[in-house]
From TrEMBL:
Compartments where found: Cytoplasm
InterPro entries in alphabetical order: DNA_helicase_Holl-junc_RuvA_I (IPR013849), Hlx-hairpin-Hlx_DNA-bd_motif (IPR003583), NA-bd_OB-fold (IPR012340), RuvA (IPR000085), RuvA_2-like (IPR010994), RuvA_C (IPR011114), RuvA_C_sf (IPR036267)
Subunit and interaction comment: Homotetramer. Forms an RuvA(8)-RuvB(12)-Holliday junction (HJ) complex. HJ DNA is sandwiched between 2 RuvA tetramers; dsDNA enters through RuvA and exits via RuvB. An RuvB hexamer assembles on each DNA strand where it exits the tetramer. Each RuvB hexamer is contacted by two RuvA subunits (via domain III) on 2 adjacent RuvB subunits; this complex drives branch migration. In the full resolvosome a probable DNA-RuvA(4)-RuvB(12)-RuvC(2) complex forms which resolves the HJ.
Function field: The RuvA-RuvB-RuvC complex processes Holliday junction (HJ) DNA during genetic recombination and DNA repair, while the RuvA-RuvB complex plays an important role in the rescue of blocked DNA replication forks via replication fork reversal (RFR). RuvA specifically binds to HJ cruciform DNA, conferring on it an open structure. The RuvB hexamer acts as an ATP-dependent pump, pulling dsDNA into and through the RuvAB complex. HJ branch migration allows RuvC to scan DNA until it finds its consensus sequence, where it cleaves and resolves the cruciform DNA.
Pfam family membership, one: RuvA_C
Name of the featured protein: Holliday junction branch migration complex subunit RuvA
Free-text note regarding domains: Has three domains with a flexible linker between the domains II and III and assumes an 'L' shape. Domain III is highly mobile and contacts RuvB.
UniProt-listed NCBIfam families: ruvA
Length: 191
């Protein structure tokens, strides 16, 4: 319903901000990654939003980038993950880090986020696989993780399962190139 707000930033009280849009003040909850990139109070700001209607409340969530909003939307589709938990996840790790954790199936990185237990982390990894993978991080990935994502995709295309591919990736040096990494990973998988 409300997809984007542009106006003057009136208040910043994490995780909530108050945005004045032509005389109407909108209370918007934002993840910390968006909060840290907000301008000073009194400045103009634009936020992409997600409007959530519950039985007891109507809430507006705001995001600085389309990737953050898309990640939020995918997270709240998962059973047991509400908007507050999704906001907590996006506050605890960037979209690129989340995408990488999902691609490499690293539950340990998700468990570090407050409110995320082992079972929830495993459910997130399972349900977000393929929906929020290496492609979501976009420019946020550095070259090494791009190479690792490419190596992982190659191994999956060759018929290896996620666990085998992730184990082979962990054994590789961090700065390995794509073609060299694929060769090394195939050697380790052949053992």
């Amino acid at each position: 319903m409300i997809g984007k707000l542009t106006g003057t930033l009136l208040e910043k009280n994490p995780p909530e901000v108050l945005l004045d849009c032509h005389g109407v003040g909108y209370e918007v909850n934002v993840p910390m990654s968006t909060f840290y990139n907000l301008p000073s109070v009194g400045e103009r700001v634009s936020l992409l939003t997600q409007f959530i209607v519950r039985e007891d409340a109507q809430l507006l969530y705001g995001f600085g980038t389309p990737e953050e909003r898309q990640a939020f939307r995918e997270l709240i589709k998962i059973s047991g993950v509400g908007p507050r938990t999704a906001l907590s996840i996006l506050s605890g790790m960037g979209v690129g880090d989340l995408a990488q954790a999902i691609t490499l199936q690293e539950a340990g990185r998700l468990v570090k986020v407050p409110g995320i237990g082992k079972k929830t982390a495993e459910r997130l990894l399972l349900e977000l696989k393929g929906k929020l993978g290496a492609d979501m991080g976009g420019a946020h990935h550095h070259a090494a993780s791009d190479a690792q994502a490419d190596i992982l995709q190659a191994l999956l295309a060759l018929g290896y399962n996620d666990k085998e591919a992730a184990a082979a990736l962990k054994a590789l040096p961090a700065d390995v190139g794509v073609s060299e990494g694929i060769k090394l990973a195939l050697k380790s998988l052949a053992k």
